[in-house]
Protein: Phosphoesterase RecJ domain-containing protein
Organism: Algoriphagus zhangzhouensis
Amino acid sequence: MEAIATFKKELSSPKKIFITTHVKPDADALGSSLGLANYLIKKGHEVTVVTPTDYPSFLNWMEGNDSVLDFSREDQQKKATAALNEADVIFCLDFSGLSRVNELGEMIRKSDAYIVNIDHHQDPEDFADFRYWSTEAAATCELIYELIVKLGDKDLIDKDIAECLYAGIMTDTGGFRHPNTTKNVHLVVAELIELGANPSQIANWIYDSNSVNRLKFIGFAISRRLVVLEDLHTAYFAISKKDLKKYQSRTGDTEGLVNYALSLDGIKLAALFSEREDGIKISFRSSSEVAVNKFAASYFNGGGHKNAAGGKSEQTLKDTIERFESLVEEHQDELFVGEAVSAD
Ligand code: 5GP
Ligand code: MN
């Protein structure tokens, strides 16, 4: 039987379903989880959405947000664990390796449930019974839309579902600007608009919900924490724990900062290093020709997409950026393939 037919059969009677996504969920991670959850609930399933950590408050408008369990919260872990243990089906959305969901990863690996992985990252780990995966897709939300249509249920996509899915596609394409903004992206969002998603309303909820502290933090970061290595076509921000504390930074406050570095004329590789409780979190962004996911995977224990990736470092902030600078210098020929890098 075709994998998708088996998958369809698996969902043909009411099931207990557990949906999870990667740490620090973004709009694609949460939008795909809640978009799918709202659809599965309509199909008569019992659904629990569990995130490994918290997520930015500018995502709280999504339908179903109030029922999401945060596994990192002691008061919600027990309920989340019970839902995972009782699940007939587990959906893993917007991540390709079980290390991206912290402790939930090993629990999922050991589970006897039917495991589904829906994702658009490179090099998926082989942990699922059914994988709906394409690196051609700009967002996991695009794949969820396609899958619902393939299952013959387009008419079940209501305004709430359309809004969740639209949000993920909007943010994973950087507001329809990144190189992953394809014809299919526009065709899918056109359908989602038809089904009730309001583009300017969703953009407003996500992009225009800054706190004064966040805006001041961005101003501070750009004026005091931006380093430009013009000869290497590289620019980065290095943000310390103290900086984050000074501006009372909340989850999501550094989101998008790295794009300011990439917006500089002539810059093809941008990075953001932020010092967190558990080490240095790194975001990489690049222009279309430069592959940052390989760089992140080779040197910073990370991965992601060609032009948007992430990683981590256990060194100090200072040592991490020193290492980064020398790695870029050392590997400039492979990073900037076919690019004129004027280091001389
Ligand atoms: P962001 O910079 O927005 O946190 O992440 C950009 C992209 O890289 C996302 O698709 C995200 O899933 C991926 N990514 C971020 N951090 C990591 C990481 O530590 N490991 C892996 N494999 N992917 C990451
Ligand atoms: Mn995504």
Remarks:
- Residues 212-335 form a domain with the Diaminopimelate Epimerase; Chain A, domain 1 fold (CATH 3.10.310.30).
- The CA atoms of residues 213 and 247 lie 6 Å apart.
- The chain has 14 helices and twelve strands.
